[in-house]
Amino acid sequence: MASKVYFIDLRADFESRVLERLKAGMEKAGLLKIVGEGEILAIKLHFGEKGCTAYLKPAYVRTVIDAMQATKCSMFLTDTNTLYVGSRSDSVRHIRTAVENGFSYASMGIPVLIADGLRGTNHEIVKIRGKHFDEVKIASDIVRADSLLALSHVKGHDVTGLGGALKNIGMGGGSRAGKVAMHSDVRPFVSDKCQGCATCTNWCPTGAIRVKGKRASILSEACIGCAECLVVCPSKAVRVKWSESSRTVQEKIVEYALGATQSKSRRAGYINFVMDVAPLCDCYPFSDASIVPDVGILISQDPVAIDKASADLINAQVGLPHTAVKGSKRGSDKFKVMYPKVDWGVQIAYAAGLGLGKIDYTLVKI
Question: Measured between alpha carbons, how far is 6 from 294 in angstroms, rounded to an integer?
Fold first, then answer.
């Protein structure tokens, strides 16, 4: 039987308001049953890097919180610290960035906690049965919460092609050590396009990049594979053999997603916001133009089905001109246009194979 994915388009008037339909969709999808009275719910989202403008709008998050109040549970908003050197690499700066982007106790009515502690070292070992891991390092506060609700801003991603619910709870659910393990197969190298500007050295968290003369080099033994140097290089001189590494990274992310949900005995829910569909993750201090018109909001208890439905709805759109998809046709694979060497479908198929959810879905319009 196909999984149900509830869909809310963004048309609205006085009789049909998007935020009210979001609350109704959450109830129909059973999200009010994933947590009980007095239990603790972790609401996992991405607060957005300082300078990013495409992250999830706070008004939607507050609406979700208000709807979940009916369960009489305790809630907190959460994410984990980053590998790269930015505005979210430790909990102090991370919470400050969250507040500046509109996520605070004052605006949300619930606390903001960084799930893996001050410097990203707080995690629990969760046993799984995967191809790459038999145990994963999931952020402590995600494991210890009674239930998990993932709010995901759907967008493109330079490593995985698609960034949705699976990436949100997989990469986003791992501690710093977990992120290193997931990125370990990414091995960037510097091509002859390098101009020696040293921009990449400011973003490298381990100091693995050296610049001598007009050429940078990456020390493989020090590189942790965070891949930030790929995007920040103004000359596009940093390369990765994606045909070899992207598949493995996606599979590892899925195994971490399994660990994050397995610890909840599958008491989890998912809401994907398919709007402001930028080409890159919200981890960067900027946001490129959306590649398609805003699509809507999807709700499900199945992370595989909701990500597949999100990708299908994006690909069904006409690509916007003068964007990263260059006005591509309706039905074309927008993620392949942006990242031709990345097969984003790997994460969907692998997650279904591990039992995280189903690829087949029925779209139910709210």
Answer: 16
**Amino acid, res. 284:** Y
C-beta separation of 292 from 259 below 8 A: no
d(CA 271, CA 43): 11
**3-class secondary-structure state, position 200:** helix
Both tokens assigned to 55: 């992250």
User: Is residue 120 within 8 Å of 102, Cβ to Cβ?
Assistant: no
Q: Is 248 exposed, middle or buried (0-12, 13-18, 19+ CB in 10 A)?
A: middle
Q: Name all domains of the chain by residue range, CATH numbers in brackets.
A: 3-183+251-365 (3.40.50), 187-239 (3.30.70.20)
- Are the CB atoms for 167 and 158 separated by under 8 Å? no
pLDDT one-digit tens code per residue, 307-348: 999 999 999 999 999 999 998 999 999 999 999 999 999 999
Task: Show the tokens assigned to 254.
Answer: 């899925």
pLDDT average, residue stretch 102-112: 98
| Chain segment 180-235, per-residue pLDDT in tens | 889 877 778 899 899 999 999 988 888 999 998 889 999 988 888 777 787 688 88
